[in-house]
């Protein structure tokens, strides 16, 4: 934006300046942050947390997460040890939490 635009806004005083700042924040917040599991920035996290920016999940990342989830369920169904799922965590890592199908 050019400095002449700012001058036009600020000539309307504090009310014009506040309106401009609210508009600027709203317009930035309405642009979604795409989550792909590879390059989320601190600025994007702040944008979501403080400006309530919407998020969208990249289709490839969502498919990858679904495949990983399906693999975990299959491993648990076959009674393979899966840390934190059918086995405990930390000092309980060798403790069996359940055996068999996760969804039953």
Describe, in plain words, how this protein is organized in 3D.
This protein has one domain. The chain has four helices and two strands, in the order ααβαβα. The protein has helices spanning 3-10, 13-29, 42-51, 59-77; strands at residues 33-35, 55-57. The radius of gyration is 24 Å and the shape is elongated. The mean pLDDT is 80.
Q: What is the mean pLDDT? A: 80
SS content category? mainly alpha
What is the count of DSSP helices, taking H or I runs of 4+ residues? 4
The spatial strand order of the largest sheet comes to 1-2
Over the alpha carbons, how many angstroms does the gyration radius reach?
Answer: 24 Å
Measured as a percent range, the helix fraction is: 40-55%
Ranges with pLDDT <50 over ≥5 residues? Answer: none
- Distance between the amino and carboxyl termini: 58 Å
* Shape category: elongated
Number of domains: 1
The helix/strand order is HHEHEH
Query: How many strand segments?
Result: 2
Quick summary of this structure?
The protein is mainly alpha-helical.
Q: How are the SSEs placed, and which strands pair?
A:
Layout: H1 3-10, H2 13-29, E1 33-35, H3 42-51, E2 55-57, H4 59-77
Parallel strand pairs: 1-2
Throw out a few tags for this protein:
52% helix, elongated, two-stranded parallel ribbon, mainly alpha, 104 residues
């Amino acid at each position: 934006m050019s400095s002449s635009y700012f001058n036009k806004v600020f000539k309307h005083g504090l009310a014009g300046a506040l309106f401009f700042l609210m508009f600027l924040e709203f317009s930035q917040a309405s642009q979604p942050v795409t989550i792909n599991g590879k390059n989320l920035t601190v600025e994007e996290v702040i944008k979501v947390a403080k400006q309530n920016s919407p998020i969208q999940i990249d289709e490839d990342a969502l498919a990858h997460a679904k495949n990983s989830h399906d693999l975990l369920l299959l491993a648990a169904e076959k009674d393979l040890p899966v840390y934190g799922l059918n086995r405990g965590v930390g000092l309980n890592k060798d403790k069996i939490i359940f055996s068999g199908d996760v969804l039953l």
